[in-house]
Amino acid sequence: MEKIAVIGGGNLGIAVTEGMLKTGINPEKIHVTRRRVHYLEPLKEKGVNVGSNNVAAVQNADLIILAVKPKQAEIIMSEIIDHLTDNQIIVSLVTGVSLEAMEKEWKIPSICFRAMPNTAVELQESITCISHQPTTTENIESIKALFSTLGPVLIIQDDMMAAATVLGACGIAFALRFIRAAQQGGIEIGFNAENALKIAAQTVKGAAELVLQNGNHPEQEIDKVTTPQGVTISGLNTMEHQGFSSALIQGVLTSYNKIK
Ligand SMILES: NC(=O)C1=CN([C@@H]2O[C@H](COP(=O)(O)OP(=O)(O)OC[C@H]3O[C@@H](n4cnc5c(N)ncnc54)[C@H](OP(=O)(O)O)[C@@H]3O)[C@@H](O)[C@H]2O)C=CC1
Ligand SMILES: O=C(O)[C@@H]1CCC=N1
Q1: Ligand nearest to the CA of 127
Q2: What's the 12 CA to ligand 1 centre distance in angstroms?
Q3: Strand ranges inside 138-255, DSSP E
Q4: EC no. (predicted)?
Q5: What pLDDT is stored for residue 165 in this prediction?
């Protein structure tokens, strides 16, 4: 990709930009916008173009990454629409706005994709789900290649984007709440906060790697830890009696129903 505009340098826009910078992309090729431009000072110091002029940013860009809230996106689209060309590519990270709505309601002339990374994109540890219209045949590989530098990529149907948002993007918060709870437990049994957090976080990372690298079902790995009449199974069963898995599944469904 030659020049990239990131419209909306907030939590996700900054994370995506930081991730792209880590891939070695030339910072001068990136232009990030937001209204309170002073929050973009750290990116500016790294050589990224920053500003509040969305039109200037898109006029110069081959790829436009839209990273604003849905209501903000409507306003911004009306501002930039006349400056878009049909050879530009728009990748929307906006939650809950389908490709069909982007084309019909926003009337975007450019090639549209949706992408759903999570904030670990900053560390190139996201999983990014990408969707495109069935009629879109070009540019899929280049979009896939860009996000593949930021973690694994899955191409999915656009109607699965809400599910991707919940499992992948909200999932970061769900996993972090687990880590926090484990840390709190760790403090009760004697660790200071710093060590409890380090153990909890690294243990989650290790558990994830066991699933990802071994390709095993979580329960296979759990079986290896649960000594008969041992301490792990007692703790696990108490958590389940308290509704651990059920609470997580219900939370996922609540988030999903809210997007829908
Ligand atoms: N955070 C996450 O983990 C994820 C978020 N998403 C989706 O990504 C989108 C962005 O989320 P998030 O980054 O969390 O939200 P933020 O509110 O952090 O970021 C949006 C940014 O847009 C800027 N903005 C608002 N109006 C304009 C404008 N007119 N021109 C330029 N910039 C503008 C705001 O800055 P200012 O007020 O200074 O203009 C703000 O920083 C949302 O649709 C969200 O649902 C998707 C996946 C994960
Ligand atoms: O909470 C939200 O609505 C957005 C979508 C995914 C992550 N943040």
Answers
A1: 1
A2: 7
A3: 153-155
A4: 1.5.1.2
A5: 98
Question: Residues 60-101: pLDDT tens digits?
Answer: 899 999 999 999 999 999 999 999 998 899 999 999 999 999
pTM over 0.90: yes
Ligand 1 lined by 71 (C-beta under 6 Å): no
Span 233-260, average pLDDT? 97
Any atom of ligand 2 within 6 Å of the Cβ of 95 = yes
Same domain, 68 and 188: no
Shortest-distance Cα residue to atom 1 of ligand 2: 170
Ligand 2 binding pocket mutation candidate from 72, 94, 165 (most atoms within 8 A of CB): 165
> What is the CATH classification number for the domain harbouring 11?
3.40.50.720
Domain range enclosing 172? 165-259
